[in-house]
Specification:
7-stranded mixed beta sheet; 15 strands; 347 residues; homodimer; 2 domains; Peroxisomal Thiolase, Chain A, domain 1; 6-stranded mixed beta sheet; alpha/beta
Chain lengths: 347, 347
């Protein structure tokens, strides 16, 4: 029954689904950053033509899905499952985006790990024989997230050096049983790891142990080393979290750094854009992955990428009650080659 | 690739996973209701020994999972995936329950449809060849839900006749590739349906159109009729929603009523327990399903049940912004017989 399992947390896909379309839409600040040329659309209106920021996030997500479907040449009625979620309470950006679309929907909550969580389940649904075409989607909006998780923007609260900037961005991916790649080859499911960080302005430190846990499981389960990959890309650890992660691997005598980067470090220019420790939010990894990374894969600059989106599963209520910030990391292995030209099945 | 698909929204499991363990824990009021003998544990302390209601919900869920694992004779380390979520912002009842458990975790948000959504994905993970043992879990707590969705309890707000009572309850299910049943045979994935209900005290009316949509898809996809089933069980439509649902089917000349019931109508005694339109919450369908329904299946009183949990995907923020209440319904077909003795594969 477990021919697809590798070790304790990893499965490989024996009929790897192909990414046949992707789309992203970002806000003004993201569109001024180093990756500006990799986005499908940049809207300088923080409300995206809507009356509230929450509705704006939903609209941004709707546009990202439309772009992805168009690029894939797939109509809404051909999407057999959509897996998605977001950071808003009750995941309303996603539910309101796809209401009355007629797309069968699995709602997820993985905080900022959602792009990888949704991609993994969308791939499992195809490889498992349940669907030919699926979609994965997520989003975040600086203005909805800040007031929900921290303080109303109008307070003008000062930000700590370890704070990250929630990206205003949405990303969508269309997977198909048939396609020219990149292919989703394997997935390592994250466990919830809590190292008892309590500072809501230091998400990187809270999530880094979960990233270490999942990446360690991936390497153990597959027998691969960091040097076997072109890139290990975490979601939104930012400067603090990325440094904690590479330090944790150093303690295992593993040098991750030459093969490692983080979406939160890629999205903004840390010197010029005043984002402190870097970008964060579901949309951060979604926009970097669906833009810069997939473009680089399609161009052959990257052939084997481990995309490991990270999420902090806390809530303001839990923190007010003295709770800690548990983290999770879901990792997805993407390759340009459908066949197993690497040693993944020999482990 | 789609040998497992039936129609637009339904898949059948070719190696149907078996329910090998289930557990539930409920609060005082639920333990005084007509199903009191079907619960594994009743705790009369609304705080379940914790300092806050949110922590209480997490503790209740932890106990339900422990009971389910014990009954299944399965250890935590043998659970290859846990699918779960709850109603709390950022799904903290579930994340905090399973943190540091080492169980690979997919976080879901399906509001009160979560027991069926998690069961469906847990079954897909096994039937798809990714795991031998999986778990599905959810919960709700009257006191956490009321203050989050409506008003602080201490306000003593008057309840409308259409209002439902959020159950203080948690349920967990352990699935295995091997077992003696009941078996998860098929699943109809819900779409988000919004009929523009705006009254947060009338969840039944908001969710009934989604239940109608999913059940209609199930009947169309499988070719089955209500009379082919021993029971069609919705999650928590309550008195108002159940009546809307049966009326909608009457307009299609389908008489659902003889085969139909709703967890929200079963959990409480509507005459004596002052719950107005009935029970609701993720824990309502979870506790009724893991108790009364599975007991009846194991005893052979029910052999073929369509469990269709329903969720309202709204948020207080969305309603304050003039938003509507979209609904979703996920349906899972359970049978006591592993083989396809019915006509499911002939459609």
């Amino acid at each position: 029954m477990n021919a697809k399992r590798l070790g304790t947390q990893t499965v490989r896909f024996t009929s790897p689904p192909s990414i046949v379309g992707s789309g992203n839409v970002v806000g003004k600040k993201e569109g001024e950053g180093p990756l500006k040329d990799s986005f499908d659309a940049i809207d300088t209106d923080t409300l995206f033509g809507q009356k509230t920021w929450e509705k704006a996030e939903s609209e941004m997500q709707r546009r990202a899905l439309t772009v992805a479907l168009d690029k894939a040449g797939v109509s809404t009625s051909e999407v057999q499952y959509l897996f998605g979620g977001d950071l808003l309470n009750q995941c309303i950006a996603t539910s309101y985006n796809i209401k009355n679309s007629g797309i069968p929907f699995f709602g997820l909550y993985g905080a900022c790990s959602t792009m990888a969580e949704s991609l993994a389940l969308a791939a499992m649904a195809i490889d498992g024989g349940y669907a030919s075409r699926t979609a994965a989607i997520t989003s975040s909006h600086f203005s909805t997230a800040e007031r929900q998780y921290r303080a109303p923007l109008s307070y003008g609260s000062q930000r700590t050096p370890s704070a990250q900037w929630t990206a205003t961005a949405a990303g969508a991916v269309i997977l198909s049983a048939a396609g020219k790649g990149p292919y989703v080859k394997a997935h390592t499911t994250g466990c919830v790891v809590d190292m008892e960080i309590k500072d809501a302005n230091n998400m990187g430190a809270a999530m880094a142990p979960a990233a270490y846990d999942t990446l360690s499981a991936f390497f153990a389960d597959t027998g691969l080393k960091p040097s076997d990959l072109d890139l290990v890309l975490t979601g939104d650890l930012g400067r603090v979290g990325a440094s904690v992660l590479t330090e944790l691997f150093k303690m295992d005598d593993v040098d991750l750094e030459p093969y490692y980067n983080d979406c939160g470090l890629l999205l903004f220019d840390s010197a010029d854009q005043d984002v402190h420790a870097g970008g964060s939010g579901c949309g951060c990894s979604a926009a970097v992955f669906t833009g810069h990374i997939l473009n680089s894969m399609r161009a052959g600059k990257l052939n084997r990428v481990l995309f490991a989106a990270t999420g902090a599963l806390h809530s303001p209520t839990a923190l007010q009650q003295g709770g800690t910030i548990p983290g999770i990391c879901h990792a997805v292995l993407l390759e340009n080659f459908k066949e197993e030209r690497y040693a993944l099945d020999l482990c």
